[in-house]
Write a structure and sequence with these properties.
CATH architecture of the largest domain: 3-Layer(aba) Sandwich
Number of helices: 21
Distance between the termini: 66 Å
Radius of gyration: 24 Å
Shape: globular
Largest sheet: 9 strands, mixed
Structural class: alpha/beta
Length: 555
């Protein structure tokens, strides 16, 4: 066996001699994740062809796996599943069908539907054509759809049958209205997407230059103001950057990845793509429910998943008695991100499920920036970890000068978005000397670990003192009788702003304001102690798990 493996590695190594850096990076990733040992001659040929061609189009990875492991399940959604060969053919057929309807290079298709195989296929078909996929929330109203459709300039839309009334009520162009597609049977005003899958099974050949046009546009979650469309293209260094992230984790090619977040969220699609780069099987979850999550883990022997922290809280809220009824022993990688991960929550989850939790920091605009291992989370609760390879981080004060204290986090890497769609001003305001910021405030400890102190716009100035909500939230989250906490600043005639804390008790706790004030006074300086405590049954969150602090300020 060893001689066979060594011979295969020699063949792969020899094939890469003289190849560009991106080819060497992909082969190194293949070796560390076990993918190398899964490569056969057909897969190796497909891999080298794609890499030498210089293609960075994400849809090309399906060409490789269709050649290498054609019969391996690529995607499972409910009762349906498709192998890598089937998925690659379906993407080609869909691209042929879209072209026949006049949709093509440089155009945009809106994806407004629940997690589904069709959503993934449409995104890949758009990429293969050199078009743009614009994923938006299936909860969008007609007014929101009107803005997003017109702002993105979309000329096609894929949705669910029950959401067609939202489309009918939107003010969209006639061209877009003629290209509204739905899953399942067609309905009045929408064509069944199944009719788009062309009968031809020949590989789709894109127009010359389409590689430069392919993009994904992800609209920011819009906790304040109107959403901005972050344009992610696929420059030559994108895949090596993805390979470097994979190499920083225990991800393996035999993983089964469960998608829990909505696919219009960059975390969900990002980890789906990373998993498919490795040739992993991906299972789609329609909408997160803690019991369904655990059932899917047990049924499919799921090994990896990516969640937002509130999902961990909801799983643990089931209680030990119910949790013991599910077999989650296959889980070995849980990535958490998209919102702050409270230290006590991370410890509680790892104590229950093992040291399998990794906390990452990133944004739609920046990609993945830092990663905290389970050891980091136990040694420094609340940390977002250390920079991932390829990331250069700067902490800058209000004057744009480097600071050793809390500063605005700017990052430069090969994952940065091309900018905001049709918004040069917002793009310019977010950049500084080639570094990008989404407005997060951070600090670094002596061990090189980073911590998020909140959003710049969320910082509270009380009596001239800067109060970082994350610091106050961390103190309150450590109280054993509290489940969730959010801290905001509210106007105060004397201090300018005062600190207000919104808290959710752990049942059956009846802890009161006086007790919590004493708890914080023992641990925080005077201006940081909340003047008011508001008790809620749950914190308001958007669909991706972020606390809606704007709503809390207005409460």
């Amino acid at each position: 066996m060893r001689e066979t493996l060594q011979k295969k590695w020699t063949e792969i190594r020899d094939s890469a001699k003289g190849a560009p850096e991106r080819t060497r990076a992909s082969l190194n990733m293949a070796r560390t994740t076990g993918l190398m040992w899964e490569l056969n001659r057909r897969g190796l040929v497909a891999l080298v062809r794609v890499q030498i061609s210089g293609s960075q189009n994400p849809s090309q990875i399906y060409r490789i796996h269709a050649a290498n492991t054609p019969d391996k399940p690529a995607i499972i959604g409910g009762a349906r599943s498709f192998t890598f060969a089937e998925l690659d053919r379906r993407v080609d057929r869909l691209a042929h069908g879209l072209r026949a309807r006049g949709f093509g290079r440089g155009q945009s298709v809106i994806l407004m539907l629940h997690n589904s195989i069709e959503l993934v296929e449409m995104s890949l078909a758009a990429a293969r054509m050199g078009a743009r996929a614009v994923a938006i929330s299936w909860r969008s109203t007609s007014a929101e759809l009107s803005y997003l459709a017109n702002h993105s300039g979309a000329s096609a839309l894929l949705t669910d049958p029950e959401l067609v009334p939202v489309v009918r009520g939107a003010e969209i162009s006639d061209a877009l209205r003629r290209n509204v597609f739905v899953r399942g049977p067609g309905v009045d005003g929408a064509v069944a997407v199944d009719s788009l899958y062309d009968a031809r099974t020949t590989p789709f050949v894109a127009e010359a230059g389409s590689e430069d046009d392919a993009a994904v546009v992800i609209y920011t979650s819009c906790t304040t103001g109107r959403p901005k469309g972050a344009v992610r293209k696929f420059p030559k260094d994108t895949l090596p950057a993805a390979f470097r992230f994979i190499g920083s984790t225990p991800m393996r090619c035999d993983d089964v990845h469960l998608v829990t977040c909505p696919l219009y969220h960059s975390t969900a699609f990002g980890f789906l793509t990373l998993s498919h780069i490795l040739g992993c099987t991906v299972v789609l979850m329609d909408e997160f429910k803690p019991r369904t999550f655990l059932e899917l883990v047990a049924r499919h022997r799921v090994t990896s998943t990516a969640v937002v922290p509130t999902m961990l809280h909801r799983v643990l809220a089931l209680g030990d008695d119910e949790l013991r009824g599910f077999d989650a022993r296959s889980l070995r990688l849980v990535f958490a991100g998209g919102a702050p991960l409270p230290g006590p929550l991370a410890i509680e989850f790892m104590d229950r499920f093992g040291d399998i939790l990794f906390n990452f920091y990133g944004a739609t605009e920046t990609g993945l920036v830092t990663l905290a291992t389970p050891d980091d989370l136990r040694a420094a609760p609340g940390t977002i970890g250390r920079p991932l390879p390829g990331n250069d981080i700067r902490l800058l004060d209000d004057e744009g000068r480097p600071t050793t204290g809390t500063g605005e986090l700017f990052v430069k890497n090969n994952f940065l978005v091309a900018g905001y769609h049709n918004d040069e001003g917002a793009t310019r305001d977010s950049m500084r000397d080639g570094y990008f910021s989404v407005g997060d405030l951070a600090r670094r400890d002596h061990g090189g670990r980073y911590f998020i102190d909140g959003r710049k716009r969320d910082m509270i100035i009380s009596g001239g003192t800067n109060v970082y909500p994350a610091e106050v939230e961390g103190v309150l989250e450590a109280h054993p009788e509290l489940a969730e906490v959010a801290v905001v600043g509210v106007p105060d005639p004397e201090w300018g702003e005062r600190v207000r804390a919104f808290v959710v008790r752990r049942p059956p706790s009846q802890i009161d304001e006086g007790t919590l004030k004493l708890w914080t006074k023992e641990r925080l300086a005077g201006p940081k102690v909340p003047r008011d405590f508001v008790f809620l049954d749950a914190l308001p969150r958007n669909p991706t798990g972020k606390v809606l602090k704007r709503d809390l300020r207005l409460a």
